[in-house]
């Protein structure tokens, strides 16, 4: 069974998945986010995806906190593009002793997902840098379907600087971010029962075939398989 709830950390989501649910696990789709994960005594970081990720290995319980797009790199001290399409042991990014202490803390907690949330809140409280309002505005604007060029103009930032900042915060450039957010927008519409042709138009695709191609390329499945599989 998969469960999630809004986190006390702004924009983040706390989630957990039981082993039984993994028997028919669906792919993890690109969403512009990064996650801090825990399972069986291990802490990992899920980098930003540009394609569907299908968990492998035997069924196991997982807990995680999914950070708002663009916020995890500053909290974890890593550039997003270094973890693109990867799952990395936190011990490869942080001192081993620090990771062991965190693992013990999460392991001892009655609810690992809640313990991960507390870890994230601690990281946020200790962070020297405040959340970048430009990045949040970028996500909100592109998520609403605004063009990249128009958004960059609104932000008063040049194309090259925007691209560099996006690589660090999101793991890829603004055009890929816009494409990923458009996919999520389309999935939300389709899951609410909106017909595919109308979903394509409202999400910002040229037509339904364009939607179908993008879903296949980013998700590795058809829209029908994602909604009904």
Automatic annotation (TrEMBL):
Keyword Membrane (UniProt): no
Any single Pfam family the record assigns to this protein: DUF6597
HTH araC/xylS-type domain location: 132-229
Domain of life, per lineage: Bacteria
GO molecular function: DNA-binding transcription factor activity; sequence-specific DNA binding
PROSITE patterns in UniProt: HTH_ARAC_FAMILY_2 (PS01124)
InterPro entries tied to this protein: AraC_XylS_family_regulators, DUF6597, HTH_AraC
Keywords from the UniProt entry: DNA-binding, Transcription, Transcription regulation
Name of the protein in question: AraC family transcriptional regulator
Species lineage: Bacteria, Bacillati, Actinomycetota, Actinomycetes, Kitasatosporales
